[in-house]
Write the structure tokens for this entry.
Amino acid sequence: MSSSDPATTTPRRRARPRRLGGAFAFAGSGLLATLAGMSAGHLTAALTDPADSPVLAVGSTVIDATPTPVKEWAIATFGSADKIILVGSVVVVTLLLAALAGLLARRRTALGLGLLLALVAAAGAAAVLQPAAGVLAVVPALVTAAVGAAVLLWLVRGLRARGAATVGTAGTAGAAQTPSRADEGDGPDVLDAGEPASRRTPVGASRRGLLVGSGLVALASVAAAGAGQWIGTVRTRLSDIALPTPARSPDPLPQGLEGRVDGLSPFRTPEADFYRVDINLAVPVVDQDSWTLTIDGDVDTEVTFSYADLLEMETVEHDITLTCVSNFVGGPYVGSARWQGIPIKQLLDRAGIDGTGADQILSTSVDGFTMSTPLEVALDGRDTMLVVGMNGNPLPRDRGFPARLVTPGIYGYVGACKWVERLTLTTYAEQEAYWTERDWAIEGPIKISSRIDTPEALSRSDAGQIAVAGVAWAQTRGIGKVQVRVDGGPWRDAELGPDAGVDYWRQWVYRWDATPGQHSLACRAVGEDGEVQTAVQAEPFPNGASGIQEIQVFVD
Ligand SMILES: Nc1nc2c(c(=O)[nH]1)N[C@H]1C(S)=C(S)[C@@H](COP(=O)(O)O)O[C@H]1N2
Ligand SMILES: [Mo]
């Protein structure tokens, strides 16, 4: 460490405990101060807006700034854990810088304090610059700064005093140090050797006082962070909302094949297993009483609906399978649910679009995220809806409460804007949306695809009959058949599960007489329209993955 480390330069050292003034202690003080600040900020954000929590604000900014290929790589490498990995990385980098701030504070308090405040300022700027930032966005950062600075100053003063006390008892140790500027505790960490330490030791700076105090600060930080999480959960619980009875609903879903085949995706995706993809680290918390949806742009009259207005309108239900453009072949970003909403045509007609020159609906969500849905696609007769309910319940917060779009047949990034508050009729020439600005395709029809759910890749099974099973989808067209190929042999038809409409996936199962050895299993879908799932491989970027999933399995 630095040449002024008392532990290395003190000529006559005593065996007395004196490590408190060491580099580790100062690095630790930076860490503790930062943790305390971040926790206090997190707790404050839980009371204002969870998205303003310093760590989450920085994380969101990193997401926005990350180039598309890196995002792709992160999704491909970490899958659904990408958010946790991102927040984790932000925390790790922050803590490294925090330790550095502590070390700097050892040389000069102002240096360490400066770095700490610069970190908080960056987080504060990230929070304030969020498109949906409220007036209170800066408050968590201010609290973080105040708590972090207070803890750092307290610890640094204490450590200095301890260093001084030690130096005092160790005799002339300090003489070996860099020249001192001990004024106002702002100088290097070791005081002039000649100065009686006791005179400069602040109250509470005893070794025990420091350790106990640090422990208390650490405990308080954990408690504050935990309380922040808890308050966030409680505050965001949806209060009782009574959805209207839909004017039209499909028949209840028939029993799927999952009852007969272990490991097969259920016909309706349980909400906990439904993939979630969005750019938000903190789920937007929207107050249904003040939220409104506005339809504007190239319309006859701009109209605005409250949540209560929407619940008074006629709603319908449809079974629709959502798919993410980032899903790789055989991947998990596909889910099926029963959605309740207002047909988009009905809403747009309230604003009047007969004479519109628009070619896209630009959705804007409460956080400023935008999405372009081709107007022609939305209105071509498919069941495009402004959705308020999912599987018979109000739309959950992470699914876009109070309302989201669902457009069958196109990927989520072009048809399923969550937390939507504005639908603007405009043109692609005039306005771009979040993902298209990042070079994803303008139109995103879902590519026909299929997935093997069981057996798992590289699994071992006993010889005999094995159920090879999975799901397949070709929204707006429907699945005609699913075929399975064993060891590169001929394609053979699988048995299909129940049919819940062209926009919903089909389960399938193929009974395979497995012989001992290593085998490859592949599946492909054939649309009702005759389109065969292509073997030509494509990456998700820029308009969705293609290819055929092939897995290896072992049979004993
Ligand atoms: N406001 C908002 N809506 C959004 C997104 C987003 O990042 N922000 N992501 C879209 C993408 S890429 C997909 S695939 C779907 C996923 O919907 P889900 O999370 O309900 O599965 O939401 C879409 N709607
Ligand atoms: Mo997506």
Confidence is low (pLDDT under 50) at residues 1-17, 166-201. The chain has 14 helices and 19 strands. The chain has three domains: 23-191+201-235, 257-438, 449-555. The radius of gyration is 30 Å.
